[in-house]
Design goal:
Layout: H1 3-26, H2 32-48, H3 53-67, H4 73-92, H5 109-114, H6 116-125, H7 138-163, H8 170-186, H9 199-217, H10 222-245, H11 262-275, E1 280-283, H12 288-295, E2 301-303, H13 312-323, E3 329-331, H14 337-346
Parallel strand pairs: 1-2, 1-3
Length: 360
């Protein structure tokens, strides 16, 4: 499943689970059908994007605390197993996929804690696809700041209520989901783009803030809450406008040449590399590396200009090959050649040997 499909599927199903929790908490009677459906949803969340389960867990805890019905476990587990077992059997019949992320390799919690403010900023402002950054406008900065303030206030309120032993409620479950998401991010691979694992944070923070604002709107702080909501909506609308004016910084696929299929060109490139005994390459395109890896059946390791990525071991393999003196290559469109020559000359390297494949 593509990344966007996995995230969207997990997002929708997790919120469906939370909606089912809200129904089951109000109804104390037995509802095996809803529980079985929730179990199936949880299984699908696991297979689409399991980090969303971190957010679902506090709401399941809330369900257990409110209903106190051990018998609920049977239909919940039954729905989960009915969906998970066939998917596990399908998964077992498929060999490992090259794009599967090495999530927990090269852990360093200290580095991740130091980078947490930046990752939170990227999450709330959305200013960094891959390793390219653009200047956040005033509205984007205001929106990100408001989200960060809301997060700090929500966490402080959570621990205050916890210290006073107040009942565990839905907004507290949402804040706990935020804390679990942030905690998970601290222990992921330092070579990954850490902010991608914070994506569920905004969803659960929005739930917590919405519930608290709704409570304020019904009391003496109604005007204050309306003012906060108006400022937040205005800043968000401005941020969307700024994002719409920002040129795309995500690289696009190399232009397809007339009469030459992408598959044919990649296979020709792989044949040339293998003929030269080259099994490690650097690539100027962030997603074209996967075309090379797939077409060579992982016989060629490829890395982008940035060391991070879905499978950081490929980057390490290519670097080690270069350092150990093995033949390596730089793959890119022919237009980058003048810049590459200037860079190599500046670094004291000789001029590269040029191989042109499919006139590109």
């Amino acid at each position: 499943m593509k990344a966007r499909g996995g995230y969207l599927t997990a997002f929708a199903l997790t919120h469906l689970c939370i909606w089912l929790v809200s129904i089951l908490v109000r109804e104390k009677k037995s509802r095996p059908g809803l529980l079985a459906g929730m179990g199936a949803c949880l299984a699908l969340v696991f297979f689409s994007q399991p980090i969303w389960l971190l957010g679902a867990a506090p709401f399941l805890l809330l369900l257990a605390m409110e209903r106190r019905r051990p018998a609920d476990l049977l239909p919940l587990a039954g729905g989960l197993a009915a969906c998970a077992v066939p998917l596990l059997l399908i998964r077992a019949s498929i060999s490992d996929v090259a794009w599967q992320t090495d999530t927990f390799g090269y852990r360093d919690p200290v580095i991740m804690l130091r980078s947490l403010p930046f990752n939170l900023w990227v999450q709330f402002a959305g200013v960094s696809p891959f390793s390219d950054y653009y200047e956040a406008g005033a509205a984007t900065g205001a929106t990100a700041t408001l989200w960060f303030v809301f997060l700090v206030l929500a966490v402080c309120d959570f621990f205050k209520r916890l210290a006073h032993r107040e009942p565990f409620t839905a907004p507290q479950a949402a804040v706990l989901a935020c804390l679990m998401t942030v905690g998970f991010c601290v222990f992921v691979n330092v070579l990954q783009f850490g902010y991608r694992y914070l994506l569920p944070l905004s969803a659960f923070l929005a739930i917590a803030v919405s519930i608290r604002l709704d409570a304020l709107l019904g009391g003496q702080w109604a005007k204050t809450a309306l003012g906060m909501l108006a400022v937040f909506v205005a800043a968000g609308a401005g941020a969307m406008t700024e994002a719409g004016r920002t040129p795309s910084v995500i690289p696009v696929q190399p232009q397809q040449k007339a009469g030459i299929s992408d598959e044919h060109a990649v296979r020709e490139l792989v044949r040339e590399l293998e003929k030269e005994g080259i099994h490690d390459v650097y690539c100027f395109h962030s997603t074209f590396i996967w075309n090379i890896i797939f077409a060579s059946r992982e016989g060629i390791s490829a890395r982008w200009t940035e060391p991070g990525g879905r499978r950081s071991e490929y980057s390490i393999d290519v670097d080690l090959a270069l350092l150990s003196g093995k033949p390596t290559a730089v793959v890119g469109e022919i237009g980058i050649l003048p810049e590459l020559k200037r860079f190599l000359a500046k670094q004291g390297y000789g001029q590269p040997r040029i191989i042109v494949v499919e006139n590109s």
